[in-house]
Fold:
Amino acid sequence: MVKLISPTSEGIKVYSVKEITHRIHDLMESAFPAVWVEGEVTGFKYHPSGHIYFSLKDEEAILRTVFFSRFNRQIKFELKDGLHVLAFGKISVYEARGDYQLYVERIEPKGLGALQLAFLQLKEKLAKEGLFESDHKKPIPRFPRTVGVVTSPTGAAIRDILHVVNRRFRGTNVLLNPVKVQGEGAAEEIAQAINEMNRLDDIDVLIVGRGGGSLEDLWAFNEEVVARAVYQSRIPVISAVGHEIDWTICDLVADLRAPTPSAAAELVVQNREDIELRLRDFKTRIKNAVRKQLEEDKEALRVLKESYAFSQPLNLVNQFSQRLDEFLRQLQNYLKNLVREKDQNFRNWAGRLEALSPLAILERGYSITFGGEGELLKDARKVKIGQMLKTRLAQGILFSKVEKIEKGED
Structure:
């Protein structure tokens, strides 16, 4: 049984909250100066200061953590809730709240490596935005006059490219924009160089790459800033990073992927010897085609020369002349018969019209009477006493005045 002693008794030490907390702080740091802790990220928060706050949890407990900005700047993958991680740091106490927590200095995803996870996360993000779609990829020119290269000025890549260009098509211009290809700041230099090349007018195609290396060595070509610079380039871009088995985000965004820098140069610069051989082949084929056509035309001319038309031209003219006379006689007979037929038809119709003419009726003793306004009179009831009338006879016209009207029966 614990015996309680009054704090007012002599020789009893009374601690302040600060002292107790400070002692716990020292004990924690001395007991856990460097530890790895495994857990699931929860409560992730990114502070405007750049510090990251979250907790690590397992099935039975939870541990607060702080990831200060000076340590988290180099993290490659996206830290988020639900991610299973291994965190390295020290256990200490935040004295203002009396909370013990893990101060993280390094963090890695559980299972996948940090760089591999970062690659997959960025690949998924850019794929959703459409940066890998074939619709935006530009064709590579077949005969570029100037090839731009973004790579290290001292690496094997530029030497391989120059060797291939000089061997395959000497005289092709190569413009190098030198950059770092690995290490801190390399991605930003590569992206800036791509943008600078796009401000020039005479570059036909752009090779971006470096020689082989580890995933860490090639990482600059997996950075988002490089991917977006390649995507926004108006100049067609060939990505040539590492060896044939190496794939980067830059490869996926570029208009064409080459397995090596040497292969990129071979893809973009045609072999002069191959071109000259093809030209000689075309020349031979054209000459043979022209010769064959000339021979065919010559044979056709010979056949024409030996034909009846050329051997007896006067006889042919006489035959055509005689046939023309026959056509003229046939035409004249046709026209005479046509005129005779049309004249007879005209007479027949004229006779019919004559029989139907009112004037023919007048010849038989009838007459036609008109009123004062020229209207045809058919009813005596419409005429008035004293009205002037005009009567048309077969020969001549009579003018009369009405003195008497006798209305006939209907």
In short: Residues 313-356 form the longest helix (44 residues). DSSP finds twelve helices and 13 strands in the chain.
